[in-house]
Write a structure and sequence with these properties.
Blueprint lengths: L11 H16 L4 H4 L10 H18 L9 H4 L14 H21 L2 H5 L15 H25 L16
Helix pairs in contact: 1-5, 1-7, 3-5, 3-7
Protein name: DinB-like domain-containing protein
Organism: Chryseobacterium piperi
InterPro entries: DinB/YfiT-like
């Protein structure tokens, strides 16, 4: 396992790596057609969920100084509501962006210092139990990724796909 500069981020590293694997596993085998389906017009479709997951990766990178813009930011930033009048990217395009940004974000996580992680990063939660720091924002992003993988996993089952496998790819280093 790679060793981060900050001990504060050690718990994030394996979660980030597992989320990378889970993201690819949960999307495995899903057709582009099924990825655009909603259940009774009430759910987000898988493309929206995958796009929001990817947007979390870009957000993580941004807070750590990675100056790369999500090419689909206008569709997914801050969990923007699904709008069926929009033209959403394909799962394949989202996966390409995922593979492009994820290793760079991973490197930024490894390089983060305690001082950087302790910096104030206001997100407007206004919760008395939540100090708005970069480290806590990273934790929120990791939690959101968990949530989105779970949502996609549920959609897999509803759409008749087998449950997500927990296989790991030894070549996936981020």
């Amino acid at each position: 396992m790679d060793t981060p500069k900050s001990k504060k981020i050690e718990i994030v590293i394996p979660a980030y790596r597992m989320h990378s694997q889970s993201f690819l596993n949960v999307l495995d085998g899903i057709s582009e057609e099924d990825a655009m389906k909603r259940i009774d017009g009430k759910t987000n479709h898988i493309v929206w969920m995958a796009g929001n997951f990817l947007n979390m990766r870009y957000g993580l990178g941004w807070v750590l100084g990675l100056q790369e813009e999500d090419p689909y930011n206008e569709l997914f930033f801050q969990g923007k509501a699904l709008d069926e009048s929009f033209s959403y990217p394909s799962l394949e395009d989202l996966k390409k962006s995922f593979h492009a940004v994820s290793p760079k974000v991973y490197q930024k996580l490894l390089e983060a210092t305690d001082e950087q992680l302790d910096e104030i990063f206001e997100i407007g939660m206004n919760a008395p139990y939540f100090k708005e720091t970069k480290l806590n924002f990273i934790g929120m992003c990791i939690g959101r990724e968990d949530y989105l993988c779970g949502q996609i996993g549920l959609m897999r089952k509803i759409l008749g796909y087998p449950g997500m496998k927990y296989d790991t790819d030894e070549n996936l280093k981020y």
